[in-house]
Amino acid sequence: MAHRQDQQRRASIHDVASRAGVSAATVSKVMAGVATVKPENAQRVFDAIEQLGYRVDPLASDMRRAKRRIIGAIMPEFESEFFGQMVTQLESLAEQRGYTLVAASSRESEARETEILARMHDWRVAGVVLAPVRNEHGPAAAFMKANGMTGVLIDRVLSDDAFDTVSADSAAASAEVARELIGKGHRHILAVGLGEQAATVRTRLDGFRTTALNLAPDVRIDVVLAESHVEPLRAQLRDYFAEGERPTAVYSLFLKGTLVALSEFRRRGWHCPNDISLVGFDDAEWMQVTWPAIAAVVQPVRQIAGHAMEALFARIEGEEGPPTARLEPCRVFMRESVGSPGNGPHSAKPQ
Amino acid sequence: MAHRQDQQRRASIHDVASRAGVSAATVSKVMAGVATVKPENAQRVFDAIEQLGYRVDPLASDMRRAKRRIIGAIMPEFESEFFGQMVTQLESLAEQRGYTLVAASSRESEARETEILARMHDWRVAGVVLAPVRNEHGPAAAFMKANGMTGVLIDRVLSDDAFDTVSADSAAASAEVARELIGKGHRHILAVGLGEQAATVRTRLDGFRTTALNLAPDVRIDVVLAESHVEPLRAQLRDYFAEGERPTAVYSLFLKGTLVALSEFRRRGWHCPNDISLVGFDDAEWMQVTWPAIAAVVQPVRQIAGHAMEALFARIEGEEGPPTARLEPCRVFMRESVGSPGNGPHSAKPQ
DNA sequence: CAACTGCGAAAAATCGATTTACTCGTTTCT
DNA sequence: AGAAACGAGTAAATCGATTTTTCGCAGTTG
């Protein structure tokens, strides 16, 4: 057997056992911290582990248990700051509990979402954090239900009869945006959004509309909602402005809408906030840096991730009871992109 | 055994075998497409699989092989578009080959990088795609080398004597930026960067400087390089401008530098491109949307991911030979943030 | 008719860790 | 003293799939 040096196999528990002169079972017990091991033997095991650089193989370790120490995370995309931060947080929290996070992007497709879920089910993950493409009533949640999977739904959801949900309190945040805009004197406001994400977009719109109409019954609120993709939304927005509509403020119900709105303003040579005001749901680093700084609703990523994992691990550990629906409060940053209509140049208030 | 209905265990290969009236080995062969199975038996196996909804457990399947069908990916962060796209691509490519991608963020820490790597080694991953925090000479690459791991290094690397590398051709892109700026008449240019990422930042700087000096020997190139973190860079930049320096253009050698530069401009009331021009390495969606649109070097994410995975799988399949060092060409988008010096109305007013 | 060839499939070993069941001594209790 | 309890440890079963080995049987060949 001269081929031992090239492909150095990693030490297994048996290698440790034979070097320490005990059985594999004893090694396992030592590592688990079981008390009924002679200190002398324990020391020899520790020495052997040290010398061989032994580490438990998580794959083999997970073989025997029904729920493996793996958490699956499915996000609609990885490209935005929000989901990037979310994955970072989830990974960190999973790691803290000795779990491995396997993250996958559904790329905004419900079909892919279910495929990924099926693959995670094959892996017998202990639980799944799912940020559905559309809402809690999609095929993915149904799949999880049908297969008795443990999971938590986040972000584009309100509440569910089978799974705990955690999301940002869009309604409250939208109400605050409405208060700000109405307070600044806006009476013609355009809301922009994507229809497919029904749950959240509708909530945001309702929260906004209700509060706005309550404060100023004469306010006019236009809505441009596209089916599912960004480009149609851009086209609709272009048409809307082409018809001569001139709202004094735009409230974008999601991040890409803010980008689309900005680029449409630019195409028409409008400047914020002199020509039109802009607030967007979802914050991004660049928004504080551009001229003008863009006002935005900041979602509490850490809180959402934290409570999602908390709920998930509680279920994994067998907690019973009806599913909970958490709403985490957002913060609204009114930056320079919001001014008063017809006021001309105005100076931003520092945040 | 009345407790069977609540915790429905998934069907194993033995369940399929007994239902089909054959042995587990035969089921395995049928699934592997081995020819030496009687068609009649094969059909019964297929039927049993269908009826039980059987799917192979990838964990158990991987147990026996030395290299598991898992690829590890370690990125410095997930929050930026670049790495977000990278992870999405890598995941997609891994999935295409029947591998599972496990991604983790080193959060710009070399210590964490090595920890994650050790954990991936425990998982006996078939290969690792590592985007090092600093460069190819860090502890993570050393760990991979010492443990005989298979891997590819990407992004902040040039070349390595043990691993294949794939990164953007920073030098060529920087040269093009230099040509553009010199061509527009700039003769006092500030380059901004972070020092720790030595490999790429140095390359970018050298490529830029060499070409600029070649085209215009009288050009003055200042450099503001911070140790490792963004905030010190911001402070240094502030000091630089506070001393009265007024370059006509800034070339940021990495994304966050672009943001820092923009926010410093804003603090001082300078506008692009009238007061100062700006080009950044690394593109982002928002850069096309702001006033002005920010000129940027776009890295070929798909190409980098594609060639990284290609190289990685070649090595996994046993390909020998010296490590390769690939450079993928970038594209430079000269947007509105770049103009000619002294051309526009200097609207600089202290805020 | 015994020995040989091949095919198809089953039995058994393997991967690495954990857990159950069981075996010795030794101590404690009645 | 004899029985029960306990301490320390090991062999073996288990998880689910794969791979190697073995086996039975049918058809050939010498």
Automatic annotation (TrEMBL), chains A, B:
Cross-referenced SMART domains: HTH_LACI
Keywords: DNA-binding, Repressor, Transcription, Transcription regulation
InterPro entries named in the record: HTH_LacI, LacI/GalR-like_sensor, Lambda_DNA-bd_dom_sf, Peripla_BP_I
Gene3D superfamilies for the chain: 3.40.50.2300, lambda repressor-like DNA-binding domains (1.10.260.40)
GO MF annotations, alphabetized: DNA-binding transcription factor activity; transcription cis-regulatory region binding
Keyword Repressor: yes
A Pfam family annotated for this UniProt entry: Peripla_BP_3
Protein name: LacI family transcriptional regulator
